[in-house]
Amino acid sequence: xxxxxxxxxxxxxxxxxxxxxxxxxxxxxxxxxxxxxxxxxxxxxxxxxxxxxxxxxxxxxxxxxxxxxxxxxxxxxxxxxxxxxxxxxxxxxxxxxxxxxxxxxxxxxxxxxxxxxxxxxxxxxxxxxxxxxxxxxxxxxxxxxxxxxxxxxxxxxxxxxxxxxxxxxxxxxxxxxxxxxxxxxxxxxxxxxxxxxxxxxxxxxxxxxxxxxxxxxxxxxxxxxxxxxxxxxxxxxxxxxxxxxxxxxxxxxxxxxxxxxxxxxxxxxxxxxxxxxxxxxxxxxxxxxxxxxxxx
Amino acid sequence: xxxxxxxxxxxxxxxxxxxxxxxxxxxxxxxxxxxxxxxxxxxxxxxxxxxxxxxxxxxxxxxxxxxxxxxxxxxxxxxxxxxxxxxxxxxxxxxxxxxxxxxxxxxxxxxxxxxxxxxxxxxxxxxxxxxxxxxxxxxxxxxxxxxxxxxxxxxxxxxxxxxxxxxxxxxxxxxxxxxxxxxxxxxxxxxxxxxxxxxxxxxxxxxxxxxxxxxxxxxxxxxxxxxxxxxxxxxxxxxxxxxxxxxxxxxxxxxxxxxxxxxxxxxxxxxxxxxxxxxxxxxxxxxxxxxxxxxxxxxxxxxxxxxxxxxxxxxxxxxxxxxxxxxxxxxxxxxxxxxxxxxxxxxxxxxxxxxxxxxxxxxxxxxxxxxxxxxxxxxxxxxxxxxxxxx
Lengths: 296, 391
Prior knowledge:
The complex is a heterodimer of chains A (296) and B (391). With 296 residues, chain A is α/β, with parallel strands linked by helices. Helices cover 48% and strands 14% of the residues of chain A. Chain A has helices at 9-18, 25-37, 51-62, 77-80, 86-95, 103-110, 120-125, 144-156, 187-192, 203-213, 219-233, 243-255, 263-269, 277-286, 288-291; strands at 41-45, 66-70, 82-84, 116-118, 133-137, 158-161, 165-168, 174-179, 194-198. Chain A has a 5-stranded parallel beta sheet with strand order 2-5-8-1-9. The termini of chain A are far apart. Chain B is an alpha/beta fold and 391 residues long. Chain B has 18 helices and 8 strands. Chain B has a 6-stranded mixed beta sheet, with helices on both faces. In chain B, helix 8 runs parallel beside helix 10 (231-245) and helix 13 (292-302) packs across helix 15 (326-339). Chain B is globular. In chain B, 33% of the residues are buried. Residues 6-13 and 94-139 of chain B have low confidence and may be disordered. Classes of the chains: A alpha/beta (296), B alpha/beta (391). Chain A binds chain B through residues 9, 25-26, 29-30, 32-33, 36-37, 39, 41, 44, 73-74, 76, 84, 86, 89-90, 93-94, 97, 103, 106-107, 110-111, 143-144, 180-184, 187, 190-191, 194-197, 236, and chain B through 36, 38, 40-41, 44, 47-48, 51, 53, 58-59, 62-63, 65-67, 69-72, 74-75, 191-192, 195-196, 198-200, 202-203, 214, 216-217, 219, 249-250, 252, 264, 301, 305-307, 309, 311.
């Protein structure tokens, strides 16, 4: 695989647009810096605004592998870095039972590369052909201890496996960390990264996204759906719908055969957009008809 | 807005000295304005310029924003500072303005600090102090201090109490971190260790090693009332929040009176008199009225997603004397209680003999409180330990 060389921000914009992803100049500048400075990029923003999708698109743009690590509370190094294949080790011990190998030789064998299972972080460091995109998704869900470990990894891009020695990255991966801000990340990690806050897109941009992602959608329906979503984002909802929900809703409305937004159709499909009874009640009390933008 | 910042195109890698100096100055400028910008960020900014992104002001602004900002709140401030520094005026004007800025901040800090300190001294007449000290005669000094109402302490006593509190809080932290719960659940097998141990047995699992599931550490959210009625207690309770930090790595702290102010970043630093000064500046409404419900609404709208989860222990330190609408408090506290693991309300007034929570604010809050205790003395704060360990 040949490495993609980028010399200009415009190349980033065009490259992403070719793949159907709308990227503004600010984000393109930051992607350009990520590629040139090889610093991790921390993206924060509300859920469903396309943080994870950026990593997918970057991997497509660079024609490289996307390696994803989904964080959660209790995530440990074994799940993120490497683990031994225990079943295979047990079988190997049985097979070697009557061999002439000493105990330490047997142990050395079963803790060799053949029995190592690479997890995302090790895989990203051992990439051979070209730098992969490493997506560390929802880092705010992991524990502070894991964050500290990650900090160490992101500064040296090398990992020590006690049984095998130190593995240094041949190609430094392009790292994207996402956070929904459910907790504040440590200063040290933040300062090691470039930072970008993803806001909800503007009306025009979101209409463009809908058209790109769902080709063939009626112009009126796209405009009305996005207008409606923008209106309800102004309400004090417990879970504000993101772009992902807008796209889900459009797909839902299409499946119901809707050409434009009608109160009855909205009533039936609002579950694609809102995920709690309180939010549903709030929108219904506000008056669905009032929130539907006119065709013009 | 799109005018070039460099008069002539600069070839990559050869940044004119004047531009480098300007970028370094800009780093100093934004740091003086409160952004966390250090040597690494400055060096990154120079790299950004070397990449040729300085040719267009918007691109340069976006690029520096990625380097200098570390959270959403930084961004708006950064954009304003960028425009102020690079686009609005020439160098001399900028220097003058920076000087005025720094002077204004220093003056404001000093003023607020003196107001705060005056408030505390004013509230403690000498005779009362003497009387109260005497009422607990016979007990040892430490025991007496532990029971004395925080609002009735002399300055000397306050210092002694702080020393004592420091010691006792450390002990509390040690006990909390050492205490283990009895479990009847079988542990998880530690496969790596087990296999290693049984290589000599031909893989027969004779010696087993176990690992324990990691205990999820609770998060702590503290909401401290700094309104006028709480003035006598606020500073000491603030120290208590700092002490709690030792046991709760994930601690979020807020001050409230007529508005809510996040102080998590300050609590994470080691406490110094300067921090307290900064706190008093940040909490504009220190020692003013109380609108608990409105503050909680603000909290729910702006901070709850980040600071509240089913694993969060919420600690409210307030006397519940609310001048706002109690319905708002009722609704907003319900929202907090629904999301939190446990809601503890510490009320300094509860230490008074014959106190009944008849205040409208307290009445509205009581249905959602899991633990309602006093917070008037060091002993009452230490008693909180039993509720903190059981989470």
